[in-house]
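Run folding on both entries below.
>entry_1
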Amino acid sequence: MQEKYYMTTAIAYTSRKPHIGNSYEVVLSDAIARYQRQIGKDVFFMTGTDEHGQKIEEYANKAGISPKEYVDGVAGEIRSIVDLLETSYDHFIRTTDEQHEKVVQKIFRKLYDQGDIYKSEYEGWYCTPCESFFTETQLKDGCCPDCGAKVTKTKEETYFFKMSKYQDRLMQYIEDHPDFIQPEARKKEMVNNFLKPGLQDLCVSRTSFKWGVPVDFDPKHVIYVWIDALSNYITGLGYDPDGSSEQFKKYWPADVHIIGKDILRFHTIYWPIMLMALDLPLPKHIFGHPWLLFGSDKMSKSKGNVMYADDLAKIFGVEAIRYYVLSEMPFASDGSITYETLIARYNSDLANTLGNLVNRSIAMADKYFSKTVCNKGVADEMDADLIACCHKAIADLHKNMDNFRVADGLEAVLTLARRANKYIDETTPWVLAKDESKKDRLETVMYNLLETIRYIAILLESFMPQTSASILEQIGAKEKSLESLEQFGKEASITVGEAKVLFSRLDEKVVAEQIASMQPTIKKEEKKDPQDKANVIINIDDFSKVELRVAKITECEKVKKSKKLYRLTVDLGYETRTVASGIAPYYTVEELIGKKVILVSNLAPAKLCGVESQGMLLAADAGENDVKVIFIDDSVPEGSKIH
């Protein structure tokens, strides 16, 4: 009997189109699901959308449409992106699905009837973006401790869930199941910051808005996000308090919930306690993945640093986007994406290491052996090392994927591709081809090379399914299963097909033009009258996002490719940075060295004429053809924050 494997993503909130940082989660989950299928498990993979709440109601009102019309549009957009990214989900759930809403009402009633939910009144601070209540002491500088948004004083009748009743039981469960919450650092955070200080009862209904699942025995209340959204993991399988489906009985408990680290508390505390109250088994693992940042910053429309998967796919292709986000995200710390790093990794890893390996290997097999090669068994130490690397790649893939270390699993495959390229350099097939007496050695080399490429292609299937299939087709592979890799040289002969370019090298300038052409709105805003910008009103929250610090210019030189740019080295006291600044027409090098300036220190890095600029100097327009840098008194220490 096949071993079952049930996994989910968190369901995406239908407030707006998801950026690539949001979409990363579904690609990560898909790689895990594909791997589990590849090793022979019966996988059920679910994703979907979370569609209720006050924020949705507010967005719909602003748009002048009903909440259902609003979420239908956004949910459709989310699903189209999920499909674009080659996600092999088995079910896409929406919390507006009729069956889900009916079962959520039953769950609420069951918890109420058994005394786990009670009616009372809530008075405290509410954060609309997070849909969370906070006490006065939990606020950070008077704002939401999670997202930093403004909170509003709220008082309303509500139902509460008795979280404290299950606190000790959950603590014991986490202690008895040390790999329940992963990574380890996230587990410590949940236990030390939330469980040990003690749990407060949780607000699970609202009366101040209507867009939600009504409490069927008290219709002025709607069931709040925690019970509604979190229950999707069981309602989507067919759970029902009055009698669950065979599918639910087969797949529950979940093998893993893949979620972002920012919603870990809800999934590792609220959700397990709800399951305990329902007398259901807990998921085996909850993996809180890190964030994908733009450079070193969170993606945000207000910061102008948002990337969308569909836009990126038009330039780089879906497979390259999958490769980048999966390879660039560490297990426990945040990953980073910029257009520059995307281009660099595309050219180095995909076009050169992988694409060039496949292309030239097929070309040599065609040139030297008219496409068909056999293993003539003329081997030496280099062959043994290559074969050992093939088996090591398999072992490394299993070890890493079984522990959700997807980036490390993918790196094991790329390491094998690099080793194969080195094998070509070591064996020099073009030299062997000149000596007729070494034809059998040449054929052995080509066989080993193509067999190694078969290993690479099969191991890539979880990460880059289209690329994997294309490589296997090009090399004419008959054996395509993971099991076939247990023996190197499974096929007696290999007949390659036509070589096709997998990844063509990208020109940075061409890509920059493509990016610019896809951002017409930004261009229009740049062409507005400068006086319009002067009249834009911002609030203190907007201004507080800009970090200004005193920096000392320690080095200065002209950028060769530009008439206007200086490459500056600035000292912030705690670190030095490189800044590209267009002030060369207005100052000599000598006038700048040693001067203290004001640096916008939290600006996303940008590449200007080949120089990665890590900040921006403040300067004033002092006339039609004059700019004055704002210098700071020498007595102000480097790194001082400007308020």
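>entry_2
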Amino acid sequence: MALNNLPKPKKPAFRFSIFWMYAIISIILLGILWLDEDPYKKTLDEYTQFEQIATDGGLKKIVISGSKKTAEGILTEAEAVKVFPGYEKEKSLPARVIVSVPQDKISKDIETWKAAGKFKGSVSYDNSSDFSSYLWSFGPFLLIIGFWIWMMRRMSGRGDSAGGGVFSVGKSKARIFDKDNDDKITFKDVAGLSEAKTEIEEIVEFLKNPQRYTDLGGKIPKGALLVGPPGTGKTLLAKAVAGEANVPFFSLSGSDFVEMFVGVGASRVRDLFRQAKEKAPCIVFIDEIDAVGRARGRNPNMGSNDERENTLNQLLTEMDGFGSNSGVIILAATNRADILDKALLRAGRFDRQIYVDLPDLNDRVAIFNVHLRKIKKDTSVDVDLLARQTPGFSGAEIANVCNEAALIAARHDHKTVTRQDFIDAVDRIVGGLEKRSKITTEEEKRSIAIHEAGHATVSWHLRFANPLIKVTIVPRGKALGAAWYLPEERQITPTQAILDEMCATLGGRAAEELFMGRISTGAANDLERVTKQAYAMVVYYGMSDKLPNLCYYDSSGQDYGFSKPYSDERARMIDEEVSRIINEQYERAKVILSKHATGHNKLAEVLISREVIFTEDVEEIFGKRPWTSRTEEILAAGESQRQIPESSSSENTSTETTPTETKSDDGGETPPPLPDEISEPEKDPTD
């Protein structure tokens, strides 16, 4: 190719800068100062000219400047017309003549002129320095320029690394984690979650020693999505990654991309990845990514989703688009993975989905041990019992239990946090505060006692019902009475377990009908839970005799819109099956209560007199339950597993446990929104 045919290099385009504006303003001010002269001011070449005008009576006033060694004379109107042609048209402006003369000489001459009667004007002296005159001239302009520069810098957010203000709305708000922070969180502070920790630790190892994996032909994952219920430790795991990884760690929330200006979200995404690429290898953590990652095209509303979708499109492009993004690993957390866009979840963007589930029994023991490190607990505190009393609790809720127990102990002036303080804390969180000031009549009190005793009696005589901990008729929260049970740790739930739970739940109303001859509104919460359980058995689990092996639950989260996935005839059959199941368990509860009526009456009388009963009181009346708790077997197995590593390392906790059965309401991998008959301590409000 000829050299002449080569494309000519383009001239660099002129780029406007704010400093050009500063320069233009400065030139204008200097021009105003030096070029805009007073038209009626004249500098005389010789002193004799000034003397002639003064002695002829042409000066009204003389101003003598010692620092400048000048004398300024203010002309009379008649003299001004002679000196400045055309002055008669602008007589309002002062006319002046200036001459250079020493102060001593002009002062003596003025005295001579006054003595001779040749000068009758006034005389003043100006001893100010040149600096002050320049300050008065330039000061206001300098103040204006300085204030403007300060405002521009403040609005552009140059003093803030996160960016802010009108001129930096497109800047990323990511906060870089300081690896030298003394209060950093490590994996030792994360109890349980052994599988999730293993995958997260592997990501950190990717960054620390990438050659170990690339030598075998593998590629470092580009992203990992932490999915799980609220409070299970997703953000805590990300903080542990920040504490363990010796690489830059960018942390921000999904809502940080959202702004009132159009195009800001996409601009912030670009700026975030630009910073990340400059500091690669690094980790970017986006918390609550569902704020910007919601599926596109769903529920469009007059174009209101365009801005969010543009932000998501830019995020998709940056994560795995045409450009290279090596060395940047994206971590994200959400509890709404079902609403995320499918393009965001594909391999190459989020290569891994790490499920952070609610802690099982042994995990709760480990979490309690972590949170009890900083608490002055009494020797009577039983961590295993606390773990059994808090089924379905997340890590955040367990932390709240420990904190609430410490507050209760301080409120009662205890030196240490006792076992009773922890029990009160669990009761406070599950059932609410006691309301002993609530007024109840003797008849209402007896009705509540019979109701709660009915729950306790039926559950005690059913194999799969949850073991009783405590029953009280003291108003607590919105309930007039409450019962606490120890739900069994189950991975799957058999049909009989659900039926037993329904029967025990209906025991309160059955007792009212049997022993009082009437029913009340106190069973409203019981009936709601039982109805949901029966509906779930028929519609979700296929446990109905007439409608077996059918499930109308949509695990994709898209549901079925406004139409039902079954006909009206099938809906009628579902209603009949739900009613049949509930009625059968209600009659079953009445049979059990009739058989143990004497024990029920004793239990109700104890409740009326003491207002609270425990497991020991029920054992004294009915004897021990003939069934052993499988939860105790799991806890014992977990304890034996924890003791093995303790012999070699005192730092190791129950994170090394064998897989244990976790609590589950539904017996399926994707639990639909069902009542918490197994997932939390049972409450029976009789309000």
